[in-house]
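Example S7 (structure tokens).
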């Protein structure tokens, strides 16, 4: 069954709207997009420039997985957006920046914000907020963040935003459904309940992650340096593994972000 996608001219935040609607029972796959947001935000509450001309989309997700598995949604949604850009011939320079960004030409192309909540019946759900710079390149750089780039900067032959919205919406919902089915099957078939939520997509994810094998700095949420070393991998729980002079450090996505050492 095709999921519903509504598009409005302006709202404060599509994520805030869908968190409210999700608590009231909005179904899995319901999407809300806005041509402009007045209070858009990214990870850790950073302001997200939500100017008209870019993709601003949120989706209610209720996959049949454990609540703790929702931590895998950023990677799954990132792969879905990449897949759609690739199908449109727009992904040649795009990489996935751990844990939740789209990255090209050493700049930020987009971001994915996953927020979980419980509805009025006590069921856990998530809202995936997806922002992609399409026709407009934000000039403002968030504190400690990367400068921005848009799809138009990468390739002048960019489809209308509404077409891209509908394509990304459908691909994200399909990807999340497939990931949930595979995760349940893999855990049951292997008898390994401890397999992390990224296990069904980990190899594919690692194939698109920026800076693997390069020297990086791990930064805390307040910008303090936590470690520097070689970015070796991401494990099936979504943690970044960095080989440092004093040993291997493992960072959950809640506690760190990465920057290339040469940046």
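Recovered sequence:
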């Amino acid at each position: 069954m095709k999921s519903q996608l509504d598009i409005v001219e302006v709202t404060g935040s599509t994520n805030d709207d869908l968190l409210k609607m999700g608590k009231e029972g909005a179904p899995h796959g319901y999407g809300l997009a806005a041509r402009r947001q007045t209070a858009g935000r990214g990870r850790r509450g950073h302001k997200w420039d939500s100017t008209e001309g870019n993709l601003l989309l949120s989706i209610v997700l209720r996959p049949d997985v454990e609540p703790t598995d929702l931590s895998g949604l950023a990677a799954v949604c990132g792969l879905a957006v990449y897949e759609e850009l690739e199908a449109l011939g727009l992904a040649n320079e795009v990489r996935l920046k751990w844990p939740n960004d789209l990255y090209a030409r050493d700049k930020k192309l987009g971001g994915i914000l996953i927020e979980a909540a419980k509805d009025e019946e006590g069921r856990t759900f998530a809202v995936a907020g997806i922002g992609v710079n399409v026709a407009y390149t934000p000039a403002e750089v968030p504190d400690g963040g990367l400068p921005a780039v848009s799809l138009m900067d990468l390739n002048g032959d960019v489809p209308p935003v509404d077409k891209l919205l509908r394509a990304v919406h459908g691909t994200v919902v399909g990807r999340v459904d497939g990931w949930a089915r595979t995760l349940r099957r893999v855990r049951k078939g292997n008898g390994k309940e401890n397999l992390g939520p990224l296990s069904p997509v980990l190899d594919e994810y690692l194939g698109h992650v920026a800076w693997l094998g390069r020297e990086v700095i791990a930064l805390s949420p307040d910008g303090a340096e936590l470690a520097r070393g070689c970015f070796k991998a991401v494990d099936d729980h979504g943690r970044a593994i960095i080989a440092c002079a004093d040993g291997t450090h493992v960072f959950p996505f809640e506690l760190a972000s990465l920057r290339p050492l040469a940046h």
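Notes on this example. Residues 161-190 form the longest helix (30 residues).
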